[in-house]
Amino acid sequence: MTSTPDINLLHELEPVAAANLNRHLDLATEWMPHEYVPWSQGRDFDTLPWDPEQSRLSDVAQIAFEVNLLTEDNLPSYHREIATIFGRDSAWGAWVHRWTAEEGRHSIVMRDYLMVTRGVDPVGLERGRMHQMQKGFDSGDKTPLRTIAYVSFQELATRISHRNTGRFTQDPIAEKLLTRVAADENLHMIFYRNLVAAALELTPSATVQAIAEELMTFQMPGTGIENFETKAKQIAKAGIYNLRNHHDDVVTPLLRHWKFFELTGLDAPAEQARENVGHYLTALDGLARRYEEKYAAAGQGTLAATSA
Q1: Which string of DSSP letters, residue by residue, matches the chain?
Q2: Do residues 83 and 29 lie in contact, with contact meaning Cβ atoms separated by under 8 Å?
Q3: Which domains are delineated in the chain?
């Protein structure tokens, strides 16, 4: 149940949510999933069963595409989470439903592409979807402050993951498709990023603590995917999404936008939280550098991250 302080905060932020919802609707481009799928390449699976040789994607590209899609598949759980936290009234409710409708296109177009091009094993993909959706997603009863901080990081991380997966496939059709999906994720990130900025003005110390908590415990929503850790390591080695991407292209730009290390007038717990974030970033950068050196020594090239 949402507490009274949380309800009050949501009420105070509602005008900001309304303004950013209107901004989003002005900027969002209508697009049709069916226009991004090469339907002419399709064949019936009953007459031509799937075979690994049919995929134009490398093994790592298949893994990255699959992880991204299975993450998107859990949309019903994500909708439940944010509808419970933000409510279904006013601009908050309008945003929840708009966001859900836009996110629904992502799994549609990604799955259609993979089925038509025979990019991955359809049986394995369906079993992965069943596993992921039956497991669901639980945010752990986050407060609204922690939620908007978390989704700011998560939406940007998802954007980078989709964009880099598209580039890594070396397939122009897949890259165009995932670039389109990434553009949606970027607009979603901006909505939440702006809400966090407004919260920093209303209640700076509490918001700084929420940012710190979410940053230092961050996990992608796809962590429940079967064999996720093994798959994530392969994705990281390929440079699609790794610690360097996370530090340079997700965490650092958001903290810079919020002027996180320049804020004044914080209480003692918030100051301590900010100091902890500083130490965390130093450690994250050092760990990313060590992995880069390890991969370089092993002769494994990586895909450069994109923040454009």
Answers
A1: ---HHHHHHHHHHHHHHHHHHHHHHHHPPP--GGGGS-GGG---TTTS---GGG--S-HHHHHHHHHHHHHHHTHHHHHHHHHHHH-SSHHHHHHHHHHHHHHHHHHHHHHHHHHHHT-S-HHHHHHHHHHHHHH-----S--HHHHHHHHHHHHHHHHHHHHHHHHHHT-HHHHHHHHHHHHHHHHHHHHHHHHHHHHHHHSHHHHHHHHHHHHHT---GGGGSTTHHHHHHHHHHTTSS-HHHIIIIIIHHHHHHTTGGG--S--HHHHHHHHHHHHHHHHHHHHHHHHHHHHHHTT---PPP---
A2: no
A3: 4-297 (1.10.620.20)
Report whether 72 belongs to an annotated binding site. Answer: yes
| Cβ–Cβ < 8 Å for 51, 241 | no
pLDDT in tens, 58-113: 999 999 999 999 999 999 999 999 999 999 989 999 999 999 999 999 999 999 99
Name the residue with tokens 């995929």: 55
Give the separation between CA 214 and CA 85, rounded to whole angstroms.
16
14 is in an annotated binding site: no
| 8 Å CB contact between 107 and 71 | no
Angle between the N-to-C axes of helices 122-135 and 59-73, in degrees from 0 to 180, rounded to the nearest 10: 40
pTM score over 0.85: yes
Q: Tell me if 103 is assigned to a ligand binding site.
A: yes
C-alpha angle 59-63-68 in degrees, rounded to nearest 5: 150
102 assigned to a ligand binding site: no
Give pLDDT tens digits for 157-212.
999 999 999 999 999 999 999 999 999 999 999 999 999 999 999 999 999 999 99
What is the dihedral angle through the alpha carbons of 11, 16, 22, 26, rounded to the nearest 10 degrees? -160
155 marked among binding-site residues: yes
262 annotated among ligand-binding-site residues: no
CA distance 252 to 215: 11
